[in-house]
Amino acid sequence: MDGFLEMVKIIALIVEIRNFNPNKTVMDKTEYITNKEQCQSTIDKRMPIVCSSCGGKLEPIKTVDNANNPTYWIGCMSCMKFDNGVSPRVYETAKYMVTERHFMAYREPMPEKEDTERYNYWLKSQIGGTCSIVYDILNFNPKQ
Ligand SMILES: [Zn+2]
C-alpha cells in the first residue's frame, strides 16, 4: 500500500512538471524602487554617457538596494559594475591621461602588460578614478 501511495505521489509530481509552463510565470509583478524603464530613461536623458572604466555601453542592471528592495541601477555589464557614467569627452581625456601621460589616480603599481587580465583591471581602475578628477576639473568654478 505504501508503495502504491509513493507511486501516486511520483505520478502527481511528473504531471505537475509536465504541465509547468514557464511563460505563465514570466509576468514580473515585483515592485521596484526604480524599474527598468525608469532606469533606462535616466540613461537616455543623460546621453551621451559611457562607462567610466571601459568607455562602453551603460544599461539598467537588476539589483537590490541597501534595504534589500528590488531596483535597477545604471551599470556596465562588460565591467560587471555599477557606474553612473561620464561624457565621452571626460572618458577620452581620462584614458589619454593614463595611457599617454602616465597619470595615476591610485598608487597601485602598473602590472606587466603581458599579465593581460591584471593589466586591464588596473587600466580600467586608473581610468575610472581619473574620470572623477577630470570631471571635477572641467566643472570647477572658482566664482561659486
Ligand atoms: Zn565598463
How would you explain this protein's 3D organization?
Strand 2 (70-76) and strand 3 (81-82) form a beta hairpin. The longest helix is centred in the C-terminal third of the chain and has 24 residues, at 116-139. It contains 4 helices and 3 strands. It has a domain at 88-139. It is mainly α and 144 residues long. It has a 3-stranded antiparallel sheet, covered by helices on one side. The structure holds zinc ion (ZN). Residues 51, 53-54, 56, 76, 78-79 line the site of zinc ion.
Run of helices and strands: HHEEEHH
Radius of gyration: 24 Å
Strand ordering within the main sheet: 1-2-3
Unique ligands:
zinc ion
* Count of beta strands: 3
Characterize the biggest β-sheet. 3 strands, antiparallel
Helix share, percent: 40-55%
General shape:
elongated
Instruction: Count helical runs.
Output: 4
Strand content: 5-15%
- What gap, in angstroms, lies between the N and C termini? 86 Å
Mean pLDDT: 90
Structural class: mainly alpha
Q: Segments where pLDDT lies below 50 for 5+ residues?
A: none
Which features would summarize this protein structure in a list?
single chain; 144 residues; mainly alpha; three-stranded antiparallel beta sheet; 4 helices; binds zinc ion
What's the quick description here?
With 144 residues, the chain is mainly alpha-helical. It is built from four helices and three strands, in the order H-H-E-E-E-H-H. The site of zinc ion has 7 residues, from loops.
Give the helix/strand layout:
Blueprint lengths: L1 H18 L16 H11 L12 E6 L5 E7 L4 E2 L5 H12 L16 H24 L5
Antiparallel strand pairs: 1-2, 2-3
Helix pairs in contact: 3-4
The structure holds zinc ion (ZN).
